[in-house]
């Protein structure tokens, strides 16, 4: 839950095994409560659409390519639902998640069954650092907080990080950003498209060899 946005649910996950049979009251860092509510592992047998409706257009292109191992960078961890989903549905793929809040990572591991690799850093800083380390990814998925989006410098780094025909997807929870962000995508990427899911605008673009030459 996001206490600054009443009624807004930031992350959901369906856990394997029986649900707790009693109610608990107390702090999330209490060891007894943590053990009782710990998610053994995420259960994606019913898919992802009912958990994160906007995630379907973001995960679709990646699941379609599950026949090959993929390297995926996810900016914004939340409960770790999307990274866990990808590693479950696409065996052999590697997902690196980035979040700037260490407590978010603790919650993801303790309560959402997240077991993947994570990097604690600001997304803008992380893109810069990974670009200098000569890393490369088949896909970069951006799903960060309200009013946060990729900027021009980020797109420069994305171009260097994406493998040929790699894909960038960005979830915008602020609809007013969409028009300007689509134009920014088109400055750096090819095959740019936009899909609307509720209040979310999902942008997609692919690395283009011709644009790489220009940069």
What does this 3D model show about the protein?
The protein has 215 residues and is α/β, with parallel strands linked by helices. A seven-stranded mixed β-sheet has the order 3-2-1-4-5-7-6, sandwiched between helices. A hairpin with a 2-residue loop joins strand 6 and strand 7. The model is unreliable at 210-215 (pLDDT under 50). The longest helix is centred in the last third of the chain and has 11 residues, at 178-188. The relative contact order is 0.13. It starts with 30 loop residues before the first helix and ends with a helix. It has eight helices and seven strands. Helix 5 (123-132) runs parallel beside helix 6 (152-161).
The CA-CA distance between the termini, in Å, is 41 Å
Number of helices: 8
* Main sheet: strands, sense, barrel: 7 strands, mixed
Which percent range fits the helix content?
25-40%
| Sheet with most strands: strand arrangement | 3-2-1-4-5-7-6
Which shape, going by the Cα principal axes? globular
What are the secondary-structure elements, in order, as H or E?
Answer: HHEHEHEHEHEHEEH
**Structural class label:** alpha/beta
**Uncertain regions spanning at least 5 consecutive residues:** 210-215
Strand content: 15-25%
Radius of gyration: 18 Å
Average of pLDDT: 88
Number of strands: 7
Protein name: Methyltransferase domain-containing protein
Domain Methyltransferase: 72-166
């Amino acid at each position: 839950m996001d206490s600054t946005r009443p009624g807004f649910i930031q992350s959901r996950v369906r856990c394997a095994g029986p649900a707790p049979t009693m109610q608990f009251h107390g702090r999330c860092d209490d060891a007894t409560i943590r053990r009782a509510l710990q998610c053994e592992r995420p259960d994606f047998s019913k898919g992802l659409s009912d958990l994160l409706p906007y995630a379907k257009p973001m995960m679709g292109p990646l699941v379609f390519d599950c026949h090959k191992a993929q390297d995926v960078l996810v900016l914004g961890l939340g409960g770790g639902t999307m990274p866990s989903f990808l590693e479950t549905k696409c065996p052999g793929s590697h997902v690196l998640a980035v979040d700037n809040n260490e407590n978010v990572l603790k919650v993801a591991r303790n309560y959402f069954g997240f077991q993947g690799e994570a990097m604690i850093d600001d997304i803008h800083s992380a893109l810069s650092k990974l670009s200098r380390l000569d890393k490369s990814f088949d896909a970069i998925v951006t799903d960060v907080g309200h009013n946060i989006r990729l900027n021009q410098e980020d797109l420069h780094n994305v171009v260097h990080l994406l493998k040929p025909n790699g894909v960038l997807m960005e979830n915008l929870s602020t609809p007013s950003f969409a028009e300007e962000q689509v134009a920014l995508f088109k400055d750096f990427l090819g095959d740019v498209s936009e899909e609307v899911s509720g209040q979310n605008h999902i942008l997609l673009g692919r690395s283009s060899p011709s644009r790489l030459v220009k940069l």
